[in-house]
Amino acid sequence: MAKYQREVMSRRGVVDIVNDIGIDVTISTEKVVEGITVIDGHFRSPHAFLFPDQMPGPVGWAHFRAFFPRQAAPMCIHLAGTGDHSYVRRDIGLVKDLLKHGIGAILVQNPFYGDRKPPNQFRSSLENVSDLFVMGGALISECNLLINWAQQRGHGPFCISGISMGGFMASLAATNALQPVSVVPILSWTTASPAYTRGAIAPAVKFQKLQAQLEDRSYVEKLKRIPNVDWIEQMHELSAKTGDTLAVSLMCVLMDHFTCLSNYPTPLDTSLCHAIVAENDQYVLRTGAPHFEDVWPGMTVEVIPGVGHITGYFLKHSNFRQRIAQLLERQIRSEGSAPPQEIISK
Q: What InterPro entries has UniProt attached to this entry (predicted)?
């Protein structure tokens, strides 16, 4: 995974590999509901094709639901947040209203979620730390494959968005797009490291298990043998600096390596990137992490005053929809094409 991140994902090379593999999209059901074509489909994840051991069984099959307006339309891929195992929340909170204004949608099931959940996994609790990194790598390839698929059906331009964990994944997916895409990461930030080591979800991480592994010399030696990384050295340096346990320090090192946007390409047009964050977010911490506008110069960040992570999620969906629509409208105008119908801008 580290080699693939270094040699492919960090060089905007995922789409070329996806095209070389030639994955076929299978349509399971297709129906028209009030003028909207609703498609349920699936395909073998390109990441699973490359690394079958990382995505065994159902994990390796990407499932999605697409909503296509009657005319060619701008589209938004909405990625799932933590605990979102179905399409219902995103359909009600985001898709329905945007469809009224001519914006289509594709909802993707995250790896390790929904139909893709391993049989022994308890709810949303990933069995391995590395599963989160696999999820990110897989969604980069899956989102860009779906963009190409929808584009072949005559739709576009495209936005990638998500809330909380879905926002992190949306940002990662956008880094490897070979065309300008709008990006709206919501209630997320530039790295998942603070969220999993210091945020409100940190107590759910099995640090004791990781600490026990670090006391196993063979495990440590295995990590040391991974070429072109110095995670163990970074772990000890960080632990000495912060006083955190080795487990917390290693988690911080790994999260920054695989999720920090500084380690990935910048989207082709950052003027189409707009992050929405909650002022009092205790889940996704921003202190100590790179600022979005430093990592992606030219983008914008909107802080919702007076709300936290949970209140922002439940109360601000209209704001999220508005920003998605505004960016797609900006993209349409910059590309010189007229929208199929007026897109909401207020």
A: AB_hydrolase_fold (IPR029058), ABHD18 (IPR019149)
